[in-house]
Amino acid sequence: MPRVSFFIDGFNVYHSLNDPRNSNRIPKYRKFLWLDYSKFLARHLRKQDEIADIFYFSAYAHFRSQRSVRTHQLLVSAWEGTGITAMLVTNDTDLVPAIKMLKKIRPKKKIGVLFPLDRSSAELKQACDFAKYTNRKHLSQSQFPDPITLPSGYKFSKPPIWK
Description:
The chain is of the alpha/beta class. It has helices at 10-17, 37-42, 63-80, 96-105, 122-127, 136-140; strands at 3-9, 50-57, 85-89, 110-115, 130-133, 148-149, 155-156. The chain has one domain (3-162): 3-Layer(aba) Sandwich (Rossmann fold).
């Protein structure tokens, strides 16, 4: 069964959903921030695929170290062979050099990109073997229950501003 490793650019996904542009300063996709990534990513697999790994990356405003960590993780993961396919969940073109380097090192490795909602990049799409796009249905069908109850009994609720 083909395996897929996902690499989520949390900063990029967050800002695609919490972007106030074109919505009178109120982010129209904020309601989707209560996202269950396992469900969401499974919706982007073929029937014969399975999720090998999910790596979630996010960083504070020191962007250089964020790129370095993501690039390093992508290369190490590919070199060690986790998954047959690597799927990047981002719109960040800073990853293009890492993708090109990886393709030189592992030319048979398939790399795809899953663009966050309402985002895309021709440069990133061209660097990858395939591209997929997020839509509202994927997001609405991939929300955590509200509230979430942990085995300890502690409950987490979706923040009111996200409703």
